[in-house]
Structure to design on (185 residues):
């Protein structure tokens, strides 16, 4: 009886099989993720994540993920959800962490702790159109990782670097992505 290798709760054998399948048929790696959003009132809007395309098939979750986005009272709303730039930090944190954990598992490194902190600086004069020299979004983001496991300090440092090198969200934030916007009529 063969036992499956699980490291950091990641099925490593399945990860390797997936990579082998992608090598044979690169189209398997092409994914399209989707989100919908509907304004509720004031700064409050609601996003829904459900359908996506990947591994050559369309997928629909049994239950969609629903996220409320809002602004805190100091930004003139009712705090019914994290604001969009906070969601960006959450997306960045989740993607960096997942990238780190998966790559550690692939290298046979068992992790015992992964924590991270995120801070981003925004000057509202950009968003409010008060100063065209001020950026609308984050001027800078600071990230601190705490990582422990059965690896040397150098290997753990390398994992943090690999997470940055392989994280799709880190790539989008640091390199930008072409975004097209149109108004449906």
């Amino acid at each position: 009886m063969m036992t499956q290798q699980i490291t950091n709760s990641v099925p490593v054998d399945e990860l390797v099989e997936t990579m082998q399948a992608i090598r044979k048929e690169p189209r398997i790696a092409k994914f399209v993720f989707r989100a919908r959003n509907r304004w509720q009132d004031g700064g409050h809007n609601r996003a829904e994540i459900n359908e996506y395309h990947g591994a050559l098939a369309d997928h629909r979750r049994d239950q969609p993920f629903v996220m409320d986005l809002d602004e805190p009272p100091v930004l003139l709303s009712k705090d019914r959800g994290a604001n969009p730039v906070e969601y960006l930090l959450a997306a960045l944190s989740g993607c960096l962490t997942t990238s780190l954990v998966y790559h550690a598992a692939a290298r046979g490194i068992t992790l015992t702790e992964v924590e991270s902190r995120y801070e981003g600086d925004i000057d509202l004069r950009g968003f409010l159109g008060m100063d065209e020299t001020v950026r609308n979004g984050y001027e800078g983001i600071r990230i601190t990782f705490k990582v422990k496991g059965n690896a040397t300090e150098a290997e753990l440092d390398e994992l943090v670097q690999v997470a940055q090198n392989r994280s799709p969200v880190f790539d989008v934030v640091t390199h930008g992505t072409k975004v097209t916007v149109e108004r449906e009529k």
Observations:
- The chain has five helices and ten strands.
